[in-house]
Amino acid sequence: MDTIFNLINSVKRKNLYSVINTTLIANPYVTDFPKEYFEGKKRDWTIFQFLKSASIFYLKTYIKLSIFTIQKMLFSMVWRKRPEIENTIIDTFLLSNRVLEHGKYEDSYFQGLYAVLEKRNIRYSYLLRIFGLKCNPLKFIKLLQVLKREKKSFIFEYQLVSYFDILKIYFHIFLYPFQTLTLLQKDKLLEKGNLFNFHLIEDISKQDLLAWTRYFVGRKLAQFPNIEKIISWSEFQVIERSFNFGYRTNGGSGKIFGSQLYISYPTYFNSFVFDIDYLHCSSPHRVLVNGKYYIRKSENNLYKLGVSLRYREVFQFRKDNRERKDILILAPYFRDEVENIVSLCEDIPTLKIKLHPTQQPNSFQFPKNISLVSGNLYDLFQTTTIVITTESGTAVEAVAVGVSVVIVASKTNLTSNPLIDYGKGEIWETVSEKDEVMEMVEKLSKFREENPERILEIAEYYKNNFFIEPTEENIIRAFEL
Question: Which of 97, 182, 420, 474 has the fewest CB atoms found within 10 Å of its own CB?
Answer without folding.
Answer: 182
